[in-house]
Specification:
Radius of gyration: 17 Å
Family: Belongs to the WD repeat MDV1/CAF4 family.
InterPro entries: WD40/YVTN_repeat-like_dom_sf, WD40_PAC1, WD40_repeat_CS, WD40_repeat_dom_sf, WD40_rpt
Largest sheet: 4 strands, antiparallel
Number of helices: 0
Protein name: Mitochondrial division protein 1
CATH topology of the largest domain: Methylamine Dehydrogenase, Chain H
Strand order of the largest sheet: 1-2-3-4
CATH class of the largest domain: Mainly Beta
CATH architecture of the largest domain: 7 Propeller
Shape: globular
Keywords: Repeat, WD repeat
Structural class: mainly beta
Pfam families: WD40
Oligomer: single chain
Helix content: under 10%
Number of strands: 23
């Protein structure tokens, strides 16, 4: 599928028939997966779009221009532009009920927005880039370049716990059932108990970086995408 004029940095699926992509060309595109055709282009960011989240008809994007934007997919329009971060926005997420939007930035802050684009809270504690924000049940999980994993109540916004997971940067984050998977810039993947933050184990080998982790096969297998010796690798690990 062609249409973007820059690197595609994020893709989310809308069921089995459609998808939304975010690109370095500063746009989002919607796609018909059956035909491969681009069905709409959402423009408004001034710089690369680094992150994307979907919930129903709403898309949320975070950009290197420092803005979070909220979009109507059916209306193909921007509902709100949300200023506040002082650096690139590298991660966004939407609460399961759609009532809150979360963003993480290179400025070290996590911001919480309502659906109209009003900022209702700024969560502090990270000391550098927040590259991952995930909603899991009633909790928000954040992680980034400072090696921390922080778990917050998505409703009260109070901190549940924080762990200094690694001296390396956390480059990927996956949550399933009662476990957290964190990939690191040193090539290792660590497994954590979601409820307590206790370390459960470590897999992988020293490499340049883990770019993505995913649980599969009934949650018993970890799929790890990494970079090693100038080559991309894909490995499977059994839990």
């Amino acid at each position: 599928m062609t249409g973007h004029t820059g690197t595609v940095r994020s893709v989310n699926f809308l069921g089995a028939q459609a998808a939304v992509s975010a690109s370095r060309d500063a746009t989002l595109r919607t796609w018909d997966l059956a035909t491969g055709a681009s069905t709409a282009t959402l423009a408004g960011h001034d710089k690369s779009v680094a992150s994307l989240a979907l919930r129903g008809d709403v898309a949320v994007s975070g950009s290197d221009d420092g803005l979070v934007r909220i979009w109507s997919l059916s209306g193909q329009s921007c509902l709100a532009a949300c200023p506040g971060h002082t650096a690139e926005v590298r991660a966004v997420a939407i609460a399961d009920d759609g009532s809150r939007i979360f963003s993480g930035s290179r400025d070290g802050h996590v911001r919480v927005w309502d659906p109209t684009g009003a900022c209702i809270a700024v969560l502090q504690g990270h000391s550098s880039l927040v590259s991952h924000v995930r909603v899991h049940r009633d909790f928000l999980v954040t992680a980034g370049a400072d090696g921390q994993i922080r778990v917050w109540s998505a409703k009260s916004l109070l901190l549940k716990y924080a762990v200094h997971a690694t001296e390396a940067s956390i480059t990927s984050l996956d949550i399933f059932e009662n476990r957290v998977l964190s990939g690191q810039s040193d090539g290792l993947v660590r497994l954590w108990d979601f409820e307590t933050g206790a370390a459960l184990g470590c897999v992988g080998s020293k490499s340049e970086a883990v770019w993505h982790t995913e649980s599969s096969n009934g949650r018993s297998t970890i799929v790890v995408a990494a970079r090693e010796d100038d080559a991309s690798t894909l490995s499977l690990w059994q839990l």
